[in-house]
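Contributing new records

If you add data, match the layout below exactly. Sequence lines come first and carry their own label; structure lines follow with theirs. Keep one chain per record. Anything else will be rejected by the validation script.
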Amino acid sequence: MMTYCIFDKMNNCMKIFVLPFFLLCLIMANFGKVSAQVNSDSLVTTPKQSLGSFPKSLSFSNGSIQVNGFYRFFATYQKQNMAYPLSSAVGDTVLPRWLFIGDDSQLPNLLLNVSGRLPGGSSWGFDLRMFQFLNGTIGSSYGKQVADSLRPDVQYPRGGLQLGGNLGTMLGVNLYGNFNTKKGQWAVKIGGIQWVSISDLTMGAFRGYNRFMLFERNPWDPVGKGVTSRYQQYFDQGSIDQDARWGNRAFQGLVVEGNALPHNLSCLALIGKTELNGGFSTTPDFSYGGKIKKSGNSKNFISLNTINRFSYADSLARESYGLNVITTEFQYAIRNYTIKGEVGAGNYFSPVHKEGWGEQFQIKASSSETSRFGVFEIHAFRISPKIVNNNAVYWNTAVTEFTVNSIPAGSIGSSAVLQPFGSSMVRVGQMTNNRQGLNLNYQLVKKKVKISAGIGSSAEIKPAAAVITVGNPINQFTRSRFWRWTFPAGIGPYNRYSHLYRDVFQTVKLSDDSSGVVVNKKFFNSMEMQLKYKYELFGRECYLFALLQANSASAKWSPITIFNEKAYVRQYASEAEAYFRINSMVMISIYGGLERTLGNYLTEINEETRRPLNQTGKGIGLGCDIDLGRNARLYVRHRWYDFRDTSFALDHFNGHEMVVELKAFF
């Protein structure tokens, strides 16, 4: 959604070039795969092996054109057993039964990647995305749905209303150049959207510790080589294949990268637009940054990193706002231990925010993966409340960012790309600004059993707003589908929920302030443990995964999670799933989850029950993966869900949901 807002104007312009060019590729492709030799007078073509009526590549001289992509059918059916209020407006409730064909994720139903390589070694590429949303009505809420009576005639397909109303580019047109020189190897990228990372504290995305469940598929998940490959890889490596976005940030503009430079140097420079430079403002709004890195022996290195944003708050360009971040990153390995750290400072400035520079750092010390006692990692961090950098891996929980328009965050054209989450309860390893903390992670690998665990303790640097935000991990994806495409805040029966991309969190108000002034710092604790077990049942592979979480937020420091009412909010969640291979084509999946979220009497109290939060979430799921042939897979998931807050009677939903996904790569 955010990506579309930033580059919508460019995409409209590119349709003029992309669509005719793509049609030309289709026509040429029907003649089979060919190669060509060029002389001064004519173009001579030599037929090669045909790949069918739609070959995937064409060769001209020393260059080539390639086409690949995927098709993804996605359908969701939900049946609600009660009318859950979506907002405080009268009658605004979840539909009792609905079928939605399509997906409100960033990935479309059909995506084609067209790329070409030039004789000199440079290359170019663009994509075509095709959306079709069907929600049972004829309207404009989800694109150009067309009534049968208004469809174009087959004899005149350009007449009437077009069926391809959501056909266009997704990441734009990109040009890549690679050059080998005596001074090193250089790569230049310019155009559409690139996926770039500099460092954790400048520009990058949080990767976590791979403690998650697999029952709910991500839109970008691959299909794998076989029905067991996804689960086998997760058991063996602790992770699964991700796409180019994993750990990176979207960037549009010019990127120059140099490697194998003299003195073991490498560099990266970029100028253009990140996700923060969105909106429809006509004033200059851009980001720039990069890094210089010197590598040593083995994995050792040291680098200087920076990211900067600059924009104007008014059309006369008299008031500016933006950010500056500069850090030094290093890694040093000695024997069986590795130390990696990043230290730096940042500055956020606007017409209403001029607090100056603040400090930030993180340091990780880990043992070798070859140790028979397992792998240990200690992670310490501190992010000043003065630093606001939503390009980095940490969240903004302390500062309300400056905006140049009043369009709500999450809506098209809004300059409020991201808003602070309040004092958030987060997973082990996740950082926020205005916080310092310590995390300890451990992983033990055996032949059939693998254990991954973590414990974290963190505290605010200065007292922030008298609120705590917390998510609900059980049924989080199901709940997020109550609100399609938009990302509203202050929703739900008591106006305390906010919708994010594939998630929903709630804001819990505190009452231990002094005449509206926050006086207490908040302390956060988190504990996680994941167990993975593989065995054979009737000669078939079987995988068991379990994830346990315990989190708390309180006014006093504690080395571990608080399990009593001294905590403002405490939450416990347990999930388990099993996967069993029936044969080479079918995999069966089973899921179960339970969570409890409890507040004490310093949090918001219901006027009728006179009690704080007392929430229970449940989820039970069944599913299967069916292999349809090479690079094609069918996924079916059915979930029964229930959520109830016994203190706040309206916050209760119950029902079941079926998700069907067909995905094929070519």
